[in-house]
Design a protein that fits this description.
This protein is an alpha/beta fold. It contains 12 helices and 15 strands. Bound molecules: zinc ion. Belongs to the ROK (NagC/XylR) family.
Length: 386
């Protein structure tokens, strides 16, 4: 992450933990917080006082019942203490959201963007961010997500064929021009971060998010930490082999996950067989829903590929749940039986089946995930050396 975090108060490890607890789990009494964080009442009092002094935590209007004695005043995060800008970078446009600290979307825009040449593209991204700062001076950090391997500990987009970028120090360029701390992250991991703190997996310490649609990816949380992997390459499951025979993907693999499951591959196969060159993904799912033979086969094969991926990731990471998300998620209810059956074939025989859930998905979720990454990095960077 690029520098400049003076605008955000310094935090101790303990105060960050208390703040995160309140963010993820909502208002809590001092006694409850002390118990959850294994702190003495005296330490907790000190922590809450510094958080209150810096405006990050306030006394809630609600009270919480106590096991003994009077109901106690709850503490809660002042969600407007800092606002975040999250951006999902695509080949032809950016999706931008402005959120509060609990990831409530305060504003959303889509802006056309030519990513090549680079300088005008960076100018355009910068202008979009500064326009948000102009209407909302509480904006304190920026997160930018994009597809492919991205190392959030680096400023650099090393290789992004779909943007036409090689070795672009995106986080540094944006930070220099906006004066805001800026972090970059893989889009699927950013979405996973949003589910981890504020979504379907809020508070879960071990879970997996699998996304399907234009891209196939997964985000893994183990021991409450999002796994980035070496140089940010974790979760690139799109080309894992599913069957030795099968369609070809765009990289020439026969029967890989993308060849069955990418929305473009599914539409391509169905449109060819049905002689419908203009077929859309929504129409394909609707035809499968009506029981049309070709569409049903394409969707069931995709379900088999998805079940295989979930089984593999589950066998390796032992999550408490698997969440399926992404713009392609609309086909999953039609084939949940196939997905579940195949996943349990691939998982270890002695391990109980892991629950599989479908997340509600709207396209704004990608940018919202980037805003959550901005917040997480801001809190990480705010920790002062003891
Ligand atoms: Zn492939």
């Amino acid at each position: 992450m690029s520098e400049r975090t003076e605008s955000f108060p310094a935090l101790s490890e303990g105060s960050r933990a208390a703040l995160v607890r309140l963010l993820v789990h909502g208002p809590a009494s001092r006694a409850d917080l002390a118990r959850r964080l294994r702190l003495s009442p005296a330490s907790l009092t000190r922590i809450v006082r510094t958080l209150e002094d810096s405006g990050l935590v306030v006394e809630s209007e609600t009270t919480v019942p106590q096991r003994m004695g009077r109901p106690s005043q709850a503490m809660e995060v002042n969600v407007d203490a800092v606002h975040l800008v999250g951006i999902k970078l695509l080949a032809g446009e950016i999706n931008l959201v402005r959120t509060d600290m609990r990831s409530t979307v305060l504003g959303h825009r889509t802006i056309p963007l030519q990513t090549v040449p680079l300088d005008p593209a960076i100018d355009r991204i910068t202008e979009a961010i500064l326009a948000e700062v102009a209407v909302d001076p509480a904006v304190g950090a920026v997160g930018i997500s994009l597809a492919g391997p991205v190392d959030p500990s680096s400023d650099m987009v090393t290789h992004s064929p779909f943007l036409g970028w090689e070795d672009v120090p995106l986080a540094r360029l944006v930070s220099e021009r906006t004066g805001l701390p800026t972090v970059i992250e893989n889009d699927v991991r950013a979405l996973t971060a949003a589910e981890h703190w504020f979504g379907a997996a809020a508070g879960a310490t071990d879970f997996v998010l699998v996304t399907i649609g234009a891209g196939i990816g997964c985000g893994v949380v183990i021991g409450d930490r999002l796994v980035d992997g070496n140089t940010g390459g974790a979760g690139q499951i799109g080309h894992l082999p599913i069957t030795p025979s099968g369609p070809l993907c765009e990289r020439g693999h026969r029967g890989c996950a993308r060849s069955y499951l990418a929305s473009s591959a599914m539409v391509g196969q169905a449109s060819m067989a049905l002689h419908r060159p203009d077929l859309t993904y929504a129409e394909l799912v609707s035809l499968a829903h009506q029981g049309e033979r070709v569409a049903s086969r394409v969707v069931r094969d995709a379900g088999y590929a998805l079940g295989t991926l979930i089984g593999l990731v589950t066998a390796i990471t032992a999550p408490s749940k698997v969440i399926i998300s992404g713009e392609g998620v609309t086909m999953v209810p039609l084939v949940m039986d196939v997905v579940q059956e195949r996943a349990s074939e691939v998982e270890h025989w002695a391990v109980p089946d892991v629950p599989i859930e479908i997340a509600e998905f709207g396209f704004v979720e990608w940018a919202r995930g980037a805003a959550v990454i901005a917040l997480q990095q801001l809190l990480e960077a705010a920790i002062s050396p003891a």
